[in-house]
Amino acid sequence: MEPDRAAPYTVASALLHAIVPLARKELVEAHDIEIRAAAPGLRDVVPAVRGSLAAHLPKAERILVPAPRRTLRLANGLAEFVHDHLKEVGPAALVVERADAADETDQEFLAVLLRRIDPALLTVVVCAETADPVLAAALKRHALPIAPGAGGGSPMTDGGAIDAGRSGENHGPEAVERCFTEGFHHAAARLGVRALREADPNTDPDAWWSLVHRTAGALAAIEREDEARAILDRARRESTDPKNRATAAYATAMLLMRHHDPAARDVGEALSWINEAVAITSLLPDRRERAFHLSFDLNGKALVEMRAGRPEEALRLVEQAIELADRDLDPGEHPIHRLVLRANRGQLTAMLGDPERALADLDAAIAADPGYPDYYISRGNLLHRLGRPQEGVADYETAMRVGPPFPEAYYNRAEIRFQAGDHAGALADLDYALELDPEFADAYANRAGLFVEFGEYGRARADALQGLALDPRNAYLLCVLGQVEAAEGRHAEARKAFDAGLRHDPALAALWASRGILAFETGAPEDAVADLARALECGDDPAVRFNRAVALRALGRDEEAREDLLRAAELAPEDEDIRRELAAVSPDRPSRSAPPGEYPPPDR
């Protein structure tokens, strides 16, 4: 049995109660979501300025489950609120006793404070015999050990140090419901498991099933899927309620699709469970109830079909779900469910090559709930793909405003800034994305690529290795690492990195192109031509054609080189290197082989 812990955000709530009354109104409003989530006792004095449609709907219609990383976003927003307040009023100290008894939300919050706020502005004293891994890592990297009783300055609360374990967790279904709804999944799982030991499915079946679903969902969110499956299996042994058994079948299918261990995922078994859910909900007698539950399950089956490599069938199922909801639900009923279906159809139609139709669906989803940030990210990505980068940036920046700090928005804006030639802006965005989430492996890949562009190979290597420690199979990180090794003359190590990346992602053009460049530079132009040809199979690119032309000329294959350069000139008519090389292989000029020194570096 897990030990008791304090309620979620006990420390953060005490801190907020001390400083919110003193803080500037505009600063409080800029962080209303974070403050109201961490300190519900302040909701009467902190009005909701931002927020999703879900906040105004009945419980049964709030179907979106907060992502496991939501608490990190909340912690970052709270840290920025504290930082900006202290910049206005002056430095302070925060002393936290019994931090080892703090809930995971508080331990994460303390870790963010330690990592992000200069100790000259906020001195954080953490008193604990042990700590969870996130806080333990932050203490190791950002704090100095002190002897008991050494003191830590003036605490920020009138009552002295904050006791992180002063209030135990509330128990019962209501506490589980609140924690699950807010995304405090560790607490929801802990409380739910305890409550289920004592709950009787026959006393209040609806409350019992709700507890089952919430507890299983929370366990899945914190990567304890096997325990979640055991709870769902027990529920199937205890009850024959068709609607709830269908929901349990749906949840089981999602466990099998989304398991954190790829080896535990099973598309075939997931399909059998989701088919059971569909079979049950299609027989529900009430028209409106059937429309909601069946369309929900059809949407879940669409995910399974997509993961099975059948996107056309997935799209058919989502369209069937939309038609069912539009026909049989009352007007205005289940608005979030409807917008999720539209957004999912948009994702599928974009994948299948109809971006304009996808854009219409994402427009509709955003119009239905303009306070929900995730779909701005999706639409921004689509607009970027459609060649409308500034509109994409506008969507990313809206996502930044309507919710707590969102690292993906900055990561995506960095890509547009890079393509526009604003490398400093791209670097600033990637720096901030990694400040928000130091485990964002793809952001390390892109920042490492920028450092390669700058010729800062030491920093590029550090980022590539940091990212690979988080995601050893990341082909982009292996590509950057190989580029660094090649630039510093370690050709064997570079080839090893490129080969490893291609084993994990043989469709990544940058890897073939980079390995081709390495082959040319190490005296193997035939291998270079072969690798660059593979890169072009992944997508036409003027830089790759230019590079292959150089390798072809080295082999005396000038006519083929000329064909590559003609096509490269069509793709990039303003490129002076391409025009110069094309002139060199014109029929009225003698041909020559380009020395290795003229071979350009790869595009990022």
Question: What does this protein look like?
Answer:
The structure is a single chain. This protein has 604 residues and is mostly helical. Helix content is 65%, strand content 2%. It has a 3-stranded parallel β-sheet with strand order 2-1-3, covered by helices on one side. The longest helix has 21 residues, at 287-307. The relative contact order is 0.05.
Keywords summarizing the entry:
3 strands, mainly alpha, three-stranded parallel β-sheet, globular, 604 residues
Summarize the structure.
The protein is mainly α and 604 residues long.
Oligomer: single chain
pLDDT under 50 segments (min length 5)?
A: 589-604
What is the strand arrangement across the widest sheet?
A: 2-1-3
| Number of helices, counting only DSSP H or I runs of 4 residues or more | 29
> Taking all residues together, what is the mean pLDDT?
93
> Which secondary-structure class do the elements indicate?
mainly alpha
Overall morphology: globular
**DSSP summary, beta strand count:** 3
Largest sheet: 3 strands, parallel
**Strand percentage, roughly?**
under 5%
What is the percent of helical residues? 55-70%
Distance between the termini: 51 Å
Computed Rg: 28 Å
Present the secondary structure layout.
Blueprint lengths: L9 H10 L5 H6 L1 H7 L31 H20 L2 E6 L6 H13 L5 E5 L6 H10 L19 E2 L9 H10 L2 H14 L6 H17 L3 H14 L3 H17 L8 H15 L5 H21 L3 H18 L6 H17 L3 H14 L5 H12 L3 H14 L4 H13 L3 H14 L4 H14 L2 H14 L4 H13 L3 H14 L4 H13 L3 H13 L4 H13 L3 H14 L4 H9 L20
Parallel strand pairs: 1-2, 1-3
Helix pairs in contact: 3-4, 4-5, 5-6, 7-8, 7-9, 8-9, 9-10, 9-11, 10-11, 11-12, 11-13, 12-13, 13-14, 14-15, 15-16, 16-17, 17-18, 17-19, 18-19, 19-20, 20-21, 21-22, 21-23, 22-23, 23-24, 23-25, 24-25, 25-26, 25-27, 26-27, 27-28, 28-29
